[in-house]
């Protein structure tokens, strides 16, 4: 086993972890990010293909109220653009009646997307982190308290630090890592009953050469109670020069094959748009429930956002050496990208006056 020592270890290289690392540069604090995957970004994942629209497989939208994320994007010189909803939508309320085209009211609270794809923020943030501070393909299995330090054991390394900051989904943290000594029963119970936002989501996207849905006086906006797609939107790029549709697939279809899901998606879209949907350039999907470094089964039935933002997440554990952070722990907008950024800022503020 290799050994490595630092002041702070950040578990997880997603938006919270990278934002925190970016902020820690201001204090010149020695720290490392360890990430189980072979990539950064966590639940931010954009699929890129040359000369085609980027497809968001993970986190996608933000709003004007997301002030911390908007501020970070501005600081990093990353631009946004408004999500196109159009004036009409396809609405399918029940399976026994044909779908309808309905008028949409004015959108006074628009959503926005990040130019160049959401992964742009991961690219820029990671570019501010010295490469030696990021260690990929390290799966943490054990955290031990040794008086003044904590040790993290991975498959081939033992890392030591004065403080460990987890940015993993809380349920994943407690279900995948052993703690010695055990954490208090109260936080164990809370984390095992904290919903991982987007954990059950299936994102689907299709690229096309032409936005044929617009020719039919539609917008690409779909709301269906029949499914398997309950929501879908125009996902063309910011310049409106390459075209796509992107939406959600009912999460109950996680266990069937990719080809079966694709067939169901195309069948549904062809009801609305005709045979042109079969001329897609590519079909992309992401079944987040099958991602072992995002999703872990719960002990009981969990509601969306359950225990997200719970005040107990603001406490410190293992004698002040462990902080449980990440989007689900943010006191405002938990589960969203805004929550991820707020969690990083909050943790940074909390440790600013700590002797590390």
Structure characterization notes:
The chain is α/β, with parallel strands linked by helices and about 350 residues long. The protein folds into two domains: about 1-45 and about 120-200 and about 295-355, FAD/NAD(P)-binding domain (3-Layer(bba) Sandwich), CATH 3.50.50; about 80-110 and about 200-290, Alpha-Beta Complex (Polyamine Oxidase, Chain A, domain 2). About 20% of the residues lie in helices and about 25% in strands. The strands form four sheets. Strands 1, 2, 10, 11, 12, 13, 14, 20 and 21 form a nine-stranded mixed β-sheet that branches. It is elongated, with a radius of gyration of 21 Å. About 45% of the residues are buried.
* Unreliable residue runs: none
**CATH architectural designation of the largest domain:** 3-Layer(bba) Sandwich
Could you give the order of the helices and strands?
A: EHEEEEHEEEEHEEEEHEHEHEEEHEEEH
The CATH homologous superfamily of the largest domain: FAD/NAD(P)-binding domain
Counted by DSSP, the helix tally is: 8
Q: What kind of oligomer do you see?
A: single chain
Q: What top-tier CATH class of the largest domain fits best?
A: Alpha Beta
Q: How helical, in percent, are the residues? A: 10-25%
Instruction: Calculate Rg over CA atoms.
Output: 21 Å
Strand content: 25-35%
User: How many beta-strand runs?
Assistant: 21
Distance between the termini: 26 Å
- How many discrete structural domains? 2
């Amino acid at each position: 086993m290799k050994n490595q020592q630092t002041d702070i270890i950040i578990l997880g290289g997603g938006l919270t972890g990278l934002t925190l690392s970016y902020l820690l540069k201001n204090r010149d604090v020695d720290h490392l990010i360890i990430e189980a995957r072979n990539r950064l970004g966590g639940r931010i994942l954009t699929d890129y293909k040359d000369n085609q629209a980027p497809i968001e497989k993970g986190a996608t939208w933000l709003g004007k109220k997301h002030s911390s994320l908007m501020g970070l994007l501005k600081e990093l010189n990353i631009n946004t653009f408004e999500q196109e909803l159009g004036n009409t939508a396809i609405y399918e309320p029940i399976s026994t009646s044909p779908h309808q085209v309905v008028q949409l009211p004015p959108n006074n609270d628009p959503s926005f997307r990040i130019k160049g794809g959401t992964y742009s923020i991961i690219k820029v943030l990671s570019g501010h982190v010295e490469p030696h501070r990021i260690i990929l393909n390290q799966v943490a299995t054990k955290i031990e308290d040794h008086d003044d330090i904590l040790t993290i054991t991975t498959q081939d390394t033992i890392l030591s630090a004065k403080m460990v900051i987890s940015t993993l989904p809380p349920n994943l943290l407690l279900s995948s890592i052993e703690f010695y000594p055990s954490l208090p029963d109260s936080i164990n119970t809370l984390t095992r009953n904290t919903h991982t936002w987007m954990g059950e989501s299936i994102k689907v996207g299709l690229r096309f050469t032409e936005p044929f849905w617009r020719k039919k006086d539609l917008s690409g906006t779909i709301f269906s109670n029949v499914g398997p797609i309950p929501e879908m939107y125009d996902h063309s790029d910011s310049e409106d020069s390459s075209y796509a549709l992107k939406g959600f697939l009912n999460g109950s279809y996680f266990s069937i094959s990719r080809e079966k899901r694709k067939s169901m998606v195309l069948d549904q879209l062809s009801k609305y748009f005709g045979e042109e949907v079969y001329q897609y350039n590519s079909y992309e999907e992401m079944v987040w429930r099958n991602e072992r470094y995002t999703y872990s089964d719960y002990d009981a039935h969990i509601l969306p956002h359950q225990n997200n933002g719970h005040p107990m997440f603001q406490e410190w554990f293992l004698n002040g050496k462990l902080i449980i952070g990440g989007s689900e722990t943010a006191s405002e907008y938990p589960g969203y990208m805004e929550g991820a950024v707020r969690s990083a800022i909050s943790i940074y503020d909390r440790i600013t006056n700590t002797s590390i």
